[in-house]
Design goal:
The complex is a heterodimer of chains A (433) and B (310). Chain A has helices at residues 3-8, 13-36, 51-62, 83-92, 106-112, 120-129, 164-170, 178-190, 206-217, 234-248, 261-270, 325-338, 341-344, 355-358, 361-364, 367-376, 394-397, 401-412, 417-431, and strands at residues 39-45, 72-78, 99-101, 116-117, 143-144, 147-148, 151-157, 159-163, 275-278, 294-296, 309-319, 351-352, 380-381. Helix content of chain A is 45%, strand content 13%. In chain A, the strands form three sheets. In chain A, strands 1, 2, 3, 4, 7, 11, 12 and 13 form an eight-stranded mixed β-sheet that branches. With 433 residues, chain A is an alpha+beta fold. Residues 1-10 and 29-36 of chain A have low confidence and may be disordered. Chain A is built from 19 helices and 13 strands. Chain B is mainly α and 310 residues long. Chain B is 75% helix and 0% strand. The radius of gyration of chain B is 27 Å and the shape is globular. Chain B starts with 6 loop residues before the first helix and ends with a helix. Classes of the chains: A alpha+beta (433), B mainly alpha (310). At the A-B interface, α4, α11 and α18 of A face α12 of B.
Chain lengths: 433, 310
């Protein structure tokens, strides 16, 4: 186009550039409208049975129909590998989703940092509609000074499982307290069966969960009631003395110091392990014809007569990066009201946190789950025990380097209980500030 | 033309010299311009992370926040932490085993494979397998071989009368196992390096030595070792770098345990950053490692120059 033609058509170079810029802007805005604002993102970790859980969750989210002006939701499965980096990188670059499931203590860290929105309005919505049927203490465990850090959706509760056939073979009944636990362990040892199955390689937290459960069982924990670190207490020393006795008597397998979760699962399957802490879905690892051999026993009493265990509440949190906070809240409420399909389909292995789900017919028939809910859940606490409430630094306590070395020292059986706890206290002081 | 002249002569020559220089200046600028994208890219890719890591090392933040400025406190904390020194000690042990263990095995195999024999190529490929197989697969297979009392090696050790050997659960045995695992996956590299070096020795030298009455041991000492010294030093430097920075071998097999016995500096740095969420401390450890590696490299390179062997 020459100059005269351009004039005739009313188009000069400046007008051409302006119209190009306007078109580009319109396209960008249009794209944003088309791809950005019509949906919010939901990140979901790989829970329960893995691939089958993810497929069920994707299908559930796909069926969501937003009401009114609320936005739709796009599902994205997130692997557990490097989960902390995934979330912190997203938070640093402000690319977090609108709603996400995540590790138990992540919401407490994120609410401290102002990255997520409190779930107070969602809780209020359940109260208002009369559908707040969360199990006792579960919602309270999410409370912080800045409001509810997240909504609970399931609970990783650690309970004691036994293999009935192995106990029968050893000629003993299930233990009821620490003393009888030692006796049953000794009887199992005689038939070459491990009495407390653990996996405490440095890349798994299984052993840490079991020892935390026993510390809470004895009324102990890593923290004082004011929230400060307090590992070296009489109750914790008693717990470690109990564990030391299990080590000395061969009830704990010394090989456990390098075990992965797969190693201990194989030992459960092969009948090498007769007792141990596990998630409430441990029996799902077994072939169908062997599942009935696994039984959850009642919580055992410590020497002081206390009962207790550890649990991890799996949260759903709402990030402030959402395109629409009302849409996030609407979706979260709908998801919590419809997630029962995970238990109906058998793809969730943790305890449901709502009574309406716990009373589903198939769960009512699951005696192990019902016992876990009725007897273990009420005596459970987080690894933040005895602190008044969870906090962000627990992310580094649960799964940090200090925890693995702590349990390995116990299994090694060479160091005094108090000294092991002092070492733990020193190591944790570096990560809990 | 005289090399020197009067001031007037020199002044009269300047415009001509300047004219001659101008195309050179233009060429240099063109080349600089062409290289600029690469320079900018290298700066962004390499320098930015290093500078940012340096900033992190001077702060006490987490993965989300930089935190407050603490000066050299992270370096001081590392240097006064017994676990740091234990990790440094294990790093040295692991690296020495990795370098000299794999060199001994690799060199021995290279010498054995020097003569021609049927199936030599296939045999060489088989020997390279530990290097070719992904480390995840190797570490899994070693876990199956060693981790539980019913695994193959503990059962074998028991049958042979060694009692209950805990290859990964006992701290001392775990250190030995990790070092052996390192040698196993590293010797093919050394074998390749030393094979190439051996190929470079003229066969005439061996013949001359034989004529002079040198036996195999003397040939090894006075011909093979001196003639392969340069390659050996280079292989040692490379393997030292690989070993000090080898995270996967240790972490996949033991995770640094039990009771931190196999924690090397790189594993400690990783755990500090990604498990304890103390990036400043972890990065400070990495910088200390870098300093040590640079020093080691300088010493070894000087050694190569002193060796003065073609």
């Amino acid at each position: 186009m020459n100059e005269s033609n351009a004039r005739r058509s009313g188009m000069n170079r400046r007008a051409f550039l302006a119209s190009t810029a306007a078109a580009a802007t319109a396209m960008t805005v249009g794209q944003k409208a088309a791809f950005g604002a019509e949906e919010i993102k939901f990140w979901d970790m790989v829970w329960g049975t893995g691939a089958t859980y993810t497929a069920a969750a994707k299908e559930l989210v796909g069926s969501y129909q937003p009401s009114g002006d609320n936005l739709g939701v796009r599902y994205q499965s997130i692997p557990w590998a490097n989960w902390y980096q995934t979330f912190t990188s997203a938070a640093a670059s402000r690319t977090t989703p609108a709603v996400s499931s995540g590790a138990a203590f992540l919401p407490f860290y994120f609410i401290e940092q102002g990255v997520i929105a409190p779930a107070d309005d969602v809780v209020a919505g359940f109260d208002k509609s009369g559908t707040n049927d969360f199990l006792p203490g579960v919602l309270d465990a999410m409370k912080t000074d800045k409001g509810y850090a997240a909504m609970p959706w399931s609970m990783d509760l650690r309970v004691i499982w036994v293999r009935k056939s192995l106990l029968e073979k050893a000629g003993v009944e299930a233990p009821t307290d620490w003393q009888s636990f030692i006796k049953v362990g000794e009887a199992l040892k005689k038939i070459d069966v491990v009495g407390l199955g653990l996996a405490d390689g440095s890349t798994t937290t299984d052993g840490q969960h079991s020892v935390s459960a026993l510390m809470i069982n004895n009324g102990g924990g890593l923290f004082a009631t004011d929230g400060t670190l307090d590992c070296v207490t009489d109750r914790n020393i008693e717990t470690l003395d109990f564990l030391n006795e299990l080590v000395r008597k061969g009830i704990i397998d010394p090989y456990a110091a390098s075990y992965t979760s797969d190693n201990v699962t194989r030992d459960w399957l092969s009948g090498r392990v007769g007792m141990g802490f596990g998630q409430t879905g441990l029996d799902k690892n077994f072939p169908a014809d062997q599942r009935s051999d696994l039984t959850v026993i009642s919580p055992i009493k410590s020497t002081r007569g206390d009962k207790g265990t550890v649990y991890y509440i799996n949260p759903l949190m709402m990030f402030k990066t959402t395109a629409s906070q009302p849409s996030s809240e609407a979706f979260l409420t709908w998801y919590l009201d419809n997630m029962k399909v995970f238990w109906e389909k058998g793809v969730a292995i943790d305890v449901p946190v709502r009574k309406s789900i716990a009373e589903l017919p198939n769960l009512k028939q699951n005696a192990n789950l019902q016992k876990s809910i009725a007897e273990w859940q009420p005596v459970g606490k987080t690894i933040g025990a005895q602190a008044p409430r969870p906090f962000g630094a627990l992310n580094a306590v649960d799964g940090g380097g200090a925890g693995a070395a702590f349990i390995q020292q116990i299994i090694e059986g060479k160091t005094a209980s108090k000294q092991i706890l002092e070492t733990l206290q020193t190591a944790l002081e570096k990560v809990v500030k | 033309m005289q090399a020197t002249g009067t001031l007037a002569d020199r002044q009269s020559r300047r415009p001509a010299e300047a004219r001659r220089r101008r195309p050179d200046l233009g060429r240099a600028m063109t080349l600089a311009g062409l290289a600029m994208p690469a320079i900018v890219l290298m700066t962004v890719v390499n320098a930015y992370p290093v500078v940012y890591a340096g900033i992190q090392a001077l702060h006490d933040g987490d993965l989300l926040n930089l935190g407050s400025f603490v000066g050299l406190a992270n370096f001081r904390d590392a240097l006064t932490d017994p676990l740091f020194w234990w990790s440094a000690r294990f790093t040295v042990i692991f690296s020495l085993c990795g370098v000299f263990g794999s060199w001994l095995v690799g060199f021995a195999l290279a010498l054995l494979l020097k003569p021609e024999f049927p199936g030599k190529s296939s045999f060489k490929i088989l020997l390279l397998l530990p290097w070719i197989v992904p480390i995840v697969v190797s570490s899994m297979s070693w876990n199956w071989l060693t981790a539980t009392p019913t695994s193959l090696l503990p059962v074998l050790a028991q049958d042979l009368g060694f009692g209950r050997v805990m290859f990964l659960a006992d701290p001392t045995m775990a250190m030995i196992t990790v070092c052996l695992f390192k040698i196993r996956i590293s010797y093919p590299f050394m074998m390749m390096m030393m094979s190439a070096a051996l190929e470079g020795i003229e066969p005439n030298l061996y013949e001359a030595a034989r004529v002079d009455g040198a036996n195999s041991r003397q040939q090894l000492r006075y011909i093979v070792l001196p003639m392969t010294a340069r390659s050996t030093y280079i292989a040692w430097i490379l393997m030292a770098m690989f070993s000090v920075n080898d995270f996967a071998t240790i972490y996949l097999l033991t995770g640094g345990g039990p009771v931190d016995s196999t924690t090397s500096l790189i594993v400690l740095a990783y755990r500090s950053v990604f498990q304890d969420f103390r990036p400043g401390y972890g990065v400070a450890i990495s910088f200390l490692m870098t300093g040590a590696l640079v020093t080691l490299s300088i010493i070894l390179f000087r050694q190569i120059r002193r060796a003065n062997i073609a």
